[in-house]
Specification:
There is one protein chain. The protein is mainly beta. Strands 2-5-7-9-12-15-18-21-23-25-28-31 form a twelve-stranded parallel beta sheet, with no helix packed on it. The termini are far apart.
Length: 388
Amino acid sequence: MIFVFALVANAADYAPHDNDVFWVGGTGTWRTWTNWSDPAPGQWYIPGVVATNPYNDGSWAYNGNNGRAIIQSGTAQITSTSQPDGQVYMTCVGSISGANLDILSTSGELKLWNTYVGPNAGYSGTINQSGGTVKLRGTTRIGGDGNGAYNLSGGSLTVGEKDVTIGNVSGSTGQLTISGGTLLQTGSTFYLGYYGTGVINQTGGDVTFDLLRMGYRSTGDGGNVYSISGGTFQHNKYLGIYNDSTFKVVGSGAESIRIMQLNSSGEGAGSKLAVELDSIGSTLIEVYGDPDNGDPYIGGADLSYVTLFIDTLVDFDGVIGETYDILWSATTINTTGMSLVCLSDTMFSWDVVDYNGGELLQLTVIPEPATIILLSAGYLVLAVKRKK
């Protein structure tokens, strides 16, 4: 156990404490007593377990178990029949060799206070949620000082009473993968890449943010990405794309993408909007903030000095002259200094047109430069022949 404490001492997010309780169960269920080791016995025994804890003398409140769950190996499993009946004060997942927490199902709401996944430099940790109702109430860091991942494939996840960070410090990486279930962020701020690198890949599920900031204090290495190809995306305030971060729409598979206000960070920041077109095009980004509806954020879509990257998927079959709707704003679209980069062989131009009481950013397929040259040359030859 001394060796374990030496590892924890290097953690960026917490210091060793008498309340630390270590997972020793390999792959096993949370409420199996022998799966935990308490270096200071006679206190908590199983983190978050209150009513049935043998050390409870009857004086504990519902969340009175202050045991800290330190999972540095194996896979701890939470199910509806084996879960904390109180709040877990701290959940820390990760080590040099990796560790996991699997949330399979819950009976009622599972409450986790401070949650750290991949807390130390060189550590990796993963939380997999395939079901249940989970509320992360305290500080949440996915990739604190190491590498952390949260995979949401089912159930519901609520976060945001305190800040959530994906990629906290320089050199750390965090990834949130959403393939199903629901994610609700309310209250505080959700940072995708704080000083570190953060990635969210949404292929399904229903996501609602109050305040998502991408690359807020990042060093600008281009690694902070929100990619959506399925599900629904709702943003209730302003979405900030800062410091070389990218918001990416892949094809037309997402059901809806709705943002009250879209902000970039201006000249020199390297903010990016990326769109990959399929045979239908791409899911329309709707920036819906409207003073007529009493919305508090009505600044529209600020794409000033944003780089718009356009690529095509294998089933794209657009022809010259076809248009594709990319983004609509209920008020205005600011394109000052915006640039377009075409990543495929298909070339596009862009324009902003009036549409449905607001403005619409459209792409149009145009001839490749070589084709334009050939067409021009053909016209000249024809003109010469006619003069003869």
